[in-house]
Design goal:
single chain; alpha+beta; 31% helix; globular
Length: 140
């Protein structure tokens, strides 16, 4: 069973070494999003993108996120986010893209995925070569 503690290693293992193929990583992330994680009440998936300087350098972030609410003995403890984030040099076309879409705002997760795949924020970066993919989990 997938747990919050092993979610990052599970996702990294399912993606494997081919980390610049955004479409392949998206399909693996979608599969991972459908998996049950121990203790999870709701699937909370976020697609966000935009130009930010989190690293001290302006980069375009194409970020697939799964959020977990962690409880200890039925009491809320904290939240964690598992990011599957592609980074790009910010072209003039990418600078125009900015979105935050949560799966909870849709009737079901398939509708969410279908909507995301129809947006320019998703489609335009697919044709570009990312600088790198970062997969990391953090407490928020």
């Amino acid at each position: 069973m997938i747990t919050v503690k092993n979610a990052e290693s599970y996702l990294k293992g399912s993606i494997g070494e081919d980390t610049d193929d955004i479409k392949k990583v998206w399909e693996k992330f979608k599969d991972f999003s459908m998996e049950t994680v121990e203790g999870e009440e709701d699937k909370e998936i976020l697609f966000q993108c935009g130009v930010y300087d989190f690293t001290g350098e302006e980069l375009f972030h194409f970020d697939l996120v799964r959020q977990f609410t962690v409880y200890e003995e039925d009491d809320y403890s904290h939240m964690e986010q598992l990011h599957c984030e592609f980074l790009f040099k910010p072209t003039s076309e990418l600078k125009k893209l900015n979105v935050d879409e949560w799966s909870m705002d849709y009737d079901d997760i398939e509708n969410f995925f279908n909507h995301i795949e129809s947006t320019n924020e998703f489609k335009i970066p697919l044709s570009l070569k990312p600088i790198k993919l970062e997969i990391y989990q953090e407490e928020i």
